[in-house]
Amino acid sequence: MAISDTARRTHDEMFPGHVSTLAVTDPELVEVFDNVAFDEVLAYAPLETTLRLKVQLAALIACQALAEYRVMLGAALTVGVTPVEAKEIVYQAVPYVGMAKVFDFLHATNEVLTARGVELPLPGQSTTTPETRLEVGRAVQSDVIGAERIDAMYAAATPDTLHLQKLLSAHCFGDHVARGGLDIRTRELLTVSMLVSLGGADAQVRGHVAANLHVGNDRATLLAVLTHLLPFIGYPRTLNGLQAINEVAPAAVGG
Question: Quick check: 255 pLDDT over 90?
């Protein structure tokens, strides 16, 4: 099997002038992977190039694939993902993946940006203060998930668990989701990409499939994102994500 012309062009766009060492040591595997990741899934699921790289970076963080993340971050910056956008993907991962898992990716991102001459720190993107983070976070949470659902979650919380709802609003949504640098539709695609790639978060995947629909991302977009994650996260987690999409956003009859 030879690498297709489309796969070669896509690879060259992301990694100009680079020849993978695996192309020398493992040519059969590289040919199969490149043809799937850089040709076949593009044909099945067209997705704007920078968005494709953003959701793949989010998935790689959740998968803890640090070496591949470095490579794909370089590609993302090459094709037009901005340093602010790249850093916001990492920040977005903190409440969903956890700082313990994000820590090394933050340092790797800083190293890649610095090597490209980007001066750190980047312009701040926070939109809240310690005094406003809960109020703003709950408002953003309501915009993303639906006010009735958030009100119900607060109403159902017992006195000894109410603080978890407040942390979810203030920390996850106020400190992170409300930040600038990425629009809310992109942030929700990043979130569902991370949750699918984590595995074991089926209820949260379903919840954020619904949230994606609520902010304007449709079934076709979610399926396109899932298709572009497939070569990097494997079939089991991809099929679990597909099940969630089918449950929450089923295909139209005859579609």
Answer: no
Average pLDDT over residues 193-217: 97
Query: Mean pLDDT throughout 175-189?
Result: 98
Cis bond before residue 121 (omega within 30° of 0) = yes
Give me the mean pLDDT over the 111-117 stretch. 98
Give mean pLDDT, residues 121-149. Answer: 97
3-state secondary structure 93-138: HHHHHCHHHHHHHHHHHHHHHHHCCCCCCCCCCCCCCCCCHHHHHH
Superfamily of domain 45-116+178-248: AhpD-like (1.20.1290.10)
Q: What Rg, from alpha-carbon coordinates, does the chain have?
A: 19
- Cα–Cα distance, 210 to 150 (Å, whole number): 13
- ∠ CA 131-192-79 to the nearest 5 degrees? 95
Which are the contacts of 37, defined by CB distance < 8 A and separation ≥ 6? 7, 231, 232
Write down how long the chain is.
Answer: 255
Tell me the per-residue pLDDT of 33-88, one tens digit each, with 9 for 90 and over.
Answer: 999 999 999 999 999 999 999 999 999 999 999 999 999 999 999 999 999 999 99
Tell me the whole-structure pTM to 2 decimals: 0.96
Residue showing tokens 């579609």: 255
The pairs formed by 31-38 with CB atoms below 8 angstroms and a separation of 24 or more are 31/1, 31/2, 31/3, 32/1, 33/231, 34/3, 34/4, 34/7, 34/8, 35/1, 35/3, 35/4, 35/7, 36/230, 36/231, 37/7, 37/231, 37/232, 38/6, 38/7, 38/10, 38/11
Query: Domain extents for the chain?
Result: 45-116+178-248, 133-176
Instruction: Supply 163's token pair.
Output: 């603080």
